[in-house]
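Hey, quick one: can you model this chain's 3D structure?
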Amino acid sequence: KQWYQRRVRGSSDCTIKVWDLAEGVGWSRSRCTVTMVGHSHTVRCLQVGLGVVVSGSYDHTLKKWNLDTGECLATLRGHLAAVLSVQFDCSKIVSGSCDNTIKVWSFNTGECLATLSGHNNAVTCIHFDHSRIVSGSLDTQIKVWDIKSERCIQTLDWASAEGHTGVVRCLQADTWRIVSAADDKTLKVWSLESGKRLVTLREHTDGVTCLQFNDLKIVSGSYDKTVKLWDFTKSS
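Sure thing. Here's the predicted structure for all 236 residues.
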């Protein structure tokens, strides 16, 4: 079964559950097929792909699980506080934590390869590609990190770039731009290379908690109980 035919959820009951969403099966008839047990506190974040689930928890650890069987394949220890964000690809896992750090781990061995320090508060969201990590934080800043040198190469904040004035809740990046959203009720679009703020989007009436974008559209969700669709071609 393909990963997109399943829904995976982490919970405050310390477990992760996998639900069968096979074609033709309605939500009311979907069934839990796997329960992953191993964390000792709330499961705060996870990503699914490559036949595995990688989860982060308030118990300070990350775990890698077999998606089909629920077997715990590895436990990654090193953070000193809750893990709030995680992303992985076929070579590395990147995590952000309430200990104010970002850690880069080997996907295959679970070894911690790097610890990035620079935020002044919890790291709430991350996004990375082959060369850069972009992070958002409770300190209202966005930082861009060079993976090879393990150095922060840009900081996007209010003083330098008219950045966010509230907790950065979510962000996404592609090859040339970053889109971020925060408790200050706004979304912001940035140039990835220069760090210049390209536009601020103001329509939500409460903090913005989630977003996705492609070449033409941005979709955002908020504490104001609305979902908004934004048109990149008219952002100016």
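One thing worth noting: The chain has one helix and 22 strands.
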